[in-house]
# Entry
Amino acid sequence: MSIPGELERARRLTFADDEVAAKELLLALLPRIEAQQRDDWALEDLAQLGELYLTRTAYDGVRESVRRLRECLAVYRSVLDGSATDDVVSQVTMSTRDVEHLVTRYSRRAQFLETGLAAAIGDHTAAAHLLAGLDGSTSEFDDLVTEFAHLRLRARVECARALCDDDLHVRSEPLWQQAIEDLGEFPGDAEEADRLWVLVALGYARFCIETGRRAEAEPWLRRAGARATSREWPLVTARTQLERAAASWQAGDHVTTERLVNECYPVIAQYARADDVWRCWLYFGLTRLAAGGLQAADDCWEHAERHWRELGKPLFIHRILLQRSWIAIFRGRYPDAVAMVGQARELLDSTPRSSWLAYARLDDHLGTIWRADALADLGFDGAGDPDEEWTDAEARYEASLGVIDGEAGTPAYETAMTKLGKAAELKIPAALAVDSVRYAITDAEARAQWGRCISAPLLASAFAVAWESEDDELVASLIEYHSARGTFAADLPSTDGLEFSRVATAAAPVSDLDELALVAGGEPGDEAGPSLTRLGPLPPLRMDPTAEPLLTRYRDLALQRYGQHVTAPEPAWSTWP
# Structure
């Protein structure tokens, strides 16, 4: 087969997700291309290799492909601008028009690779700048119009997916909406158009699932699955099943989740895409934990952690460490769980993309470990023994009734109260900080989603610790706060102090407050102006005229740790007549 034919075959292999065969073919072609001194073929080969490396997260390969593309293009640019030496000019056999076509085409291909690479490594500012350059690029060559449109759409999807990976779902939403608008039927190769369609459909469906809009994701997954089946693209079909499994787990359907992951995993494992493989192991672990299989769940999550450690993704490793720490909690190995949380904190510190919400959840989880340790001292029947075998731990886990038989006044009781106090110091400020975000969410659905999916679990855990610590005053303060935690205001609330700010332990990006609301789910609505239905933060509440306002110390800790003002900067309200 001719070299152009082989390059086209490599492209078709990529469409079928057979990246290994495509890479081997492209690498084998390079010596033949060099022997024939065809730079146009070499540029096509390097551009395809760069796209393969980007897909397989081999970022050094992407950088090398871009470097070689840019070096070759620089020579041809020098020919166009007249700065090339006579020796270089004498070797160019193409017309000026052909050289211009070559430079235009592969400059855009290189810029696409640079955009995808910047997004993948989390440099979202650089990715946005490069994407803007692609959006603004036009071509005077009619045969490049469709190719440039494809590149822009693929680059937009790469940027949107990378933002979602870093929990920046709101920033990704305009990109997804633009991608959907641009997704019409492109002229040209029908197979390439189908490939582009399923790329956008799968990415957007995952975005919808992660933001709580499962119903919107379903038709995209059905249509993507249908196209993949008709084209005989097994990996795309499997990825469609994986997204449906994620939606099923979110809906509480564990049986369907298990079935779908079992069906798609053999294909996903064969193609060895790290992101898909680790998500399979995550859901394997979740379903096994739900069935009482502690050891099986831990083994699954260990596989998931190994995949992300190989790729060096701090945010993902931190998440799976928190997931694995639950097994240590259930087995009564609290120092091991604390050590995992410490590792997770170090990973958050190592990435500039970590948000204060991640630290609040981490502190809440650390409080959960202290709480579990305290309940073990109180004789909780579900508390694990660190020396017991897996089978004994699983039997106890399944048989637990949640009974506590500790006696007040004993040394174990006093120790438990101290540990519960430490848990409260961690959990209550985190819960107050997270709940305070609702005051700035303008859309009722998004506000409800935030309250249900993010605030409620942390607030419930804070109430539990306060109750178990037998601190009646703290319980009463939390009840008062929960009963009157927002006000109706005719004026738009001030945003002073409500922006995401820096945390004590690491830098966190300043973001729109609605940003994390969309992570929980629901689509923020546009603010139309002052409204009597707009929730605002309460001023401080005072229950006792001789005491400090409610939860003063915990509110101060929320501000100190996460930069969140839990109450409005106004005089305290009195809660007595």
